[in-house]
Amino acid sequence: MKFFGASPPQAPGNTALNMDVIKVIAARELRGYFATPVAYVFLVIFLAMAGFLTFGFGGFYARRQADLQPFFGFHAWLYLFLVPAIAMRLWAEERKSGSIELLMTLPVTLWQAVLGKFLAAWGFTAVALALTFPVWITVNYLGNPDNGVIFAAYLGSLLMAGGFLAIGSCISAANRNQVVAFIITVVICFGFMLLGFEPVLGLLAAAGLPQGLIDAIAGLSFLAHFQAISKGVIDLRDVLYFLLVIATWLYATTIVLGMRKAD
Questions:
Q1: For residue 36, is pLDDT > 80?
Q2: Total structural domains in the chain?
Q3: What was the pLDDT predicted at 2?
Q4: Are 19 and 35 within 8 A, CB to CB?
Q5: Is 104 within a domain?
Q6: Confidence of residue 5 (pLDDT cuts 50, 70, 90)
Q7: How crowded is the C-beta side of 48, counted as CA atoms within 13 Å?
Q8: Which of 56, 66, 262, 263 has the most CB atoms in a 10 Å sphere around its CB?
């Protein structure tokens, strides 16, 4: 999926973050997703797995509660494998094909290219998430849920997916092999998830780490921040956490690509 073609978008004003250029890149990349059957296969797998986990393992009907806790409870685990599958192609394919060399000669800054490709992947993930709306309709048909809490959970889920994608973008930029990029991304994202688990925190405490450091490590957990938002409390700290994760890893992506440019 390459937007680097014979007719690159122009960058009027030569600004580092020209939104018109970023929009062109994102739109072209997003169209590229739906130009192949892979996108539709991914959507079917995501929706099938989300439904199966919600109604099968989540006990959606057995709980007899009008909420989507069983649905959102599995999102982190779905993203752990499905989002890296999207992210692994962001840059690894460019490096493998050699088209990344063309990037260095285009009137497009690294930030514009990185943001454009990231926003396209994030937008595709948002489409997959939006297609789960029948679950929301179902719970409203069966009961009277707090739709504000559900909306917050959707927002938290999208932010968490963005964090996974940003990590995958950086790893993809550092690897030519998509499979390697996928595996490394899964491992790193899994690590971010484990940071909030009590057994892990217990091991850190047993190792003699000060409580302040343990609390700081726990604060890096994807799950902790997502679960806080999914309860309906949109705390600015949780939102900023995900935005900071996204910005940090996208910045790391530009550094990796910049090193490639300097070679």
A1: yes
A2: 1
A3: 47
A4: no
A5: yes
A6: very low
A7: 6
A8: 66
Q: Is residue 81 part of a domain?
A: yes
Cβ–Cβ < 8 Å for 185, 168: yes
Q: What percent of the chain has pLDDT over 70?
A: 87
**What is the Cα 100 distance to its own chain's centre?**
22
Burial of 190 (0-12, 13-18, 19+ CB in 10 A): middle
- Identity of residue 101: E
Q: Sign of dihedral through CA atoms 11, 104, 171, 3?
A: positive
Does the pLDDT of residue 12 top 60, yes or no? no
CA atoms of 204 and 74, how far apart (whole Å): 26
Residue 219 lies in a domain: yes
Domain boundaries, position 54: 35-262
For residue range 203-260, what is the model confidence (pLDDT) as tens digits?
888 888 888 888 888 888 888 899 889 888 888 999 999 999 999 999 999 999 888 6
Q: Is the dihedral of CA 41, 167, 152, 81 positive or negative?
A: positive
Does residue 179 sit within a domain? Answer: yes
pTM of the model: 0.86
